[in-house]
Write a structure and sequence with these properties.
The protein is an alpha+beta fold. About 30% of the residues lie in helices and about 40% in strands. Helix 2 (about 95-135) runs antiparallel to helix 3 (about 145-180). It is rod-shaped, with a radius of gyration of 47 Å.
């Protein structure tokens, strides 16, 4: 009885399975086909560049400060004003120094009067000595008289020398007083533009405290930092392609004018100064990037139009052997005109969808559009 029941169950199961298979038919899933332009990744030689960033500066910058202490009477310029070499920029109160200069001038006059009197006495003593020498030859004077006249001549000569020394000291003091008074007028060291004003009339100026900053007129320089690992590729006179950021991005051809020989111990970088051509769009303080050619290297490039941006992620639709598109994430490098370097995500010779726009092409068969 048990054997019969088991056989019946097996028969029912077989019948059910046969019924299920008989009611279904398998068919392949249809893949949607879309037309698109197709491009190919390429392995090409690209320039190997050294890149550095920096700020535009004037070739010469002067910080104008006082050399003597005094209250500021006038500041004759403002930031943005053009100045010429030797132009008066700041005037300090010179009352005390003017009094010193006048006193020194009076001392010079007194010393000159004393020198004139001493010179007259010395001249008279010298002529008297000459007459006594003639009388001595004629044996008309005693030795004692001759000695007294000679000593008077020597004393007069010594007095004259002392008066001359005193006059020279007084004149030097007067010159110093005039020089100190001249320090109360601060002059432009060269022709240029005032880029900063740090003081106003009424404030006290002290030696070494900045009052104005003046940038020299003419062409500008880009001062950039280069890492110590790449400084060997840069030399004086080398050409550099400089891109200046701003409202209108500007590209200029610069020349390395100076390489500071000592590295910054904190950043391990070297300061280089790049001469820039004259341009009305350049202003001191602008940010720029310099690139120096350092040979070539192999790189995989694709058209920039094939890149799909999803937020901050770059990707591209890559075709497999059956022409099915798959969205693949990329790591991009520098751009080379209309091409962009791919650091990872694509190999050389792979086919990609060009200009996919906003279409979702993942999993779709791509038919090449002429």
């Amino acid at each position: 009885m048990k054997i019969l029941l088991r056989a019946s169950l097996l028969a029912v199961s077989a019948a059910m399975m046969a019924g299920c298979h008989g009611g279904e038919s398998t068919s392949p899933v249809a893949v949607q086909t879309m037309q698109a332009r197709v491009v190919e990744s390429q392995q090409l030689q690209v320039p190997l560049n050294v890149r550095s960033t920096g700020t535009v500066h004037a070739r010469e910058t002067a910080i104008v400060s006082a050399q003597v202490m005094g209250r500021i009477q006038q500041v004759l310029v403002r930031a943005g004003d053009s100045v010429r070499a030797g132009q008066t920029l700041v005037v300090l109160d010179d009352a005390a120094l003017r009094a010193s200069a006048d006193q020194a001038q009076d001392a010079v006059k007194a010393a000159q009067s004393e020198q004139a009197a001493a010179q007259t006495d010395a001249k008279l003593a010298a002529s008297t000595l000459e007459r006594y020498k003639q009388l001595q030859a004629e044996k008309s004077v005693s030795p004692q008289e001759m000695d007294e006249v000679a000593r008077r001549a020597e004393a007069s000569s010594a007095r004259l020398e002392a008066a001359r020394a005193q006059t020279g000291a007084a004149q030097a003091q007067e010159s110093g007083a005039r020089t100190m008074r001249g320090y109360t007028r601060l002059l432009a060291p060269f022709s240029g533009v005032v880029t900063a004003r740090m003081a106003d009339p009424g404030t006290m100026a002290s030696p070494g405290v900045p009052l104005l900053q003046v940038d020299q007129a003419g062409a500008l320089q880009l001062e950039a930092s280069v890492d110590e690992s790449t400084i060997g590729a840069i030399h004086k006179g080398m050409k550099a392609q400089v891109a200046i950021d701003g409202g209108n991005s500007t590209s200029l051809a610069g020349t390395v004018a100076e390489i500071v020989p000592a590295a910054d111990p904190a950043s391990h970088s070297f300061l280089i100064k790049i001469d820039l051509p004259s341009s009305s769009q350049l202003r001191a303080g602008m940010y720029g990037t310099a690139e120096f050619a350092n040979g070539t290297r192999q790189a995989i490039l694709i058209p920039r139009s094939a890149v799909v941006m999803r937020g901050s992620l770059a990707s591209a639709y890559v075709l497999d052997g059956q022409g099915i598109a798959q969205l693949r994430t990329l790591t991009l490098g520098a751009t080379q005109g209309n091409l962009v370097e791919v650091l990872s995500g694509i190999s050389s010779g792979e086919k990609l969808v060009d200009a996919p726009s906003d279409r979702d092409l993942a999993g779709k068969r791509i038919e090449v559009q002429p």
